[in-house]
Amino acid sequence: MQITRLELKDFRNIREAAVSFCPGVNVICGENAQGKTNLLEAVALLTGRGSFRGARESQMARFGEKAFHLKMAFRDAEREQSIAYDAGGDKRKVSLNRVPLPSASELAGVFTAVVFHPEDLSLVKGGPGGRRDFLDAAISQLKPVYGRYIAQYNGVLEQRNALLKQIHRTGRGKEMLPIWDEQLAKIGTAVSILRKDYLGKLSPLAETVYRGFTGERETFQIEYESSVFREDIPLSVYSEELIGHYRQLLEARVEDDIRLQFTGAGVHRDDLDIRVNGLSARAYGSQGQQRSCAIALKIGEAMLLRGVTGENPVILLDDVMSELDPGRQDYLLNRIRGFQVLITCCDEASARRMNGGKLFTVKGGVFSEVPLDLPAENAL
């Protein structure tokens, strides 16, 4: 997967821009609030997964404008393709190769990208919810049915929690709990198996990236922490035995759940254990180590996507260079092979350590390509 040309009009602070990327590493450099992240957001929007900032489309049009327009030419393993994305107010028009699509979600799987942005540091130093969200989004790119499992599970969980509150308040309705327990157990078991399988494949890839970051000086481990299944219970084949184990746990905790008025165990309580040199990265990792862990997970995700789908997703790295030492910066600039990478940063000097690739500067939403052999003081 390779973006050849991206055109933006009235998107965020970008009045109009057209940028052509190289197949390798592309660095977009500039001060804060000039448009670097906006460009990455536009690319991410074309995956059909929405803004990684959580923004609504009505917030993306340039101030004073009612709509924005994006157009991207890209190449996959088989052919050249194009996406057009026009949105504003309540209207949206999305087309693939000039053929209108019923919704932006139809782009899922057509153009794929893996995004790291500063909020992804919550993967390491935040609560378990962020780590579950990472897992769920990553697995859904490989198995669209997984997203439906999560939606179904959350719906059943909401119903069970409402019933728990009713029982706590009135003492009535306890005989209905087995109905919801059975559904939670069936869906939750499927989710647990898929999460365990995904992490088993992701872990060695992310570990390879992290070791590369550190010049083999540090170790990295990631493990799935299930709130339902002990480590000695194999999570490989969907079975009545696993479903029964899940259901029995819910039944054993029912009095506590009624007292607390929510379901205290299940895949909605799972977590990931991320360790550097055998110690919790969340509790003991430095800022640089935590950032390196999050980036390693994202690049590992891209490597796994490539291995499963045969396509190289584009890697989008927003503001990754800060708090990384020169060795880790060198890894991002020169040692990620086989992927097109778009990196934003503020420090042009660090970007110039690139061996090849393209360097762009941005100021006030205007992008300019800068020859790598041009001295930095003349670049702007």
Polypeptide structure, described:
This protein is an alpha/beta fold. It has eleven helices and 15 strands. It has helices at about 35-45, 120-125, 130-140, 145-170, 175-215, 240-250, 255-260, 280-285, 285-310, 325-335, 350, and strands spanning about 1-10, 15-20, 25-30, 70-75, 80-90, 90-95, 100, 115, 220-225, 270-275, 280, 315, 340-345, 360-365, 365-370. The protein has a six-stranded antiparallel beta sheet with strand order 2-1-4-5-6-7. Helix 3 crosses helix 4 (about 145-170), helix 4 (about 145-170) crosses helix 7 (about 255-260) and helix 5 (about 175-215) crosses helix 6. InterPro entries: DNA-binding_RecF (IPR001238), DNA-binding_RecF_CS (IPR018078), P-loop_NTPase (IPR027417), RecF/RecN/SMC_N (IPR003395), RecF_2 (IPR042174). Its main location: cytoplasm.
Total number of strands: 15
Distance between the termini: 31 Å
Strand order of the largest sheet: 2-1-4-5-6-7
Q: Rg, please?
A: 23 Å
Sheet having the most strands: 6 strands, antiparallel
Helix fraction? 40-55%
Low-confidence region ranges: none
Strand coverage percent = 15-25%
Tell me, rounded to a whole number, the average pLDDT.
91
Instruction: Name the structural class.
Output: alpha/beta
Q: Give the helices and strands as they follow along the chain.
A: EEEHEEEEEHHHHEHHEEHHEHEHEE
Number of helices: 11
Shape: globular
GO cellular component, one term: cytoplasm
Pfam family, one: SMC_N
Protein name: DNA replication and repair protein RecF
InterPro entries: DNA-binding_RecF, DNA-binding_RecF_CS, P-loop_NTPase, RecF/RecN/SMC_N, RecF_2
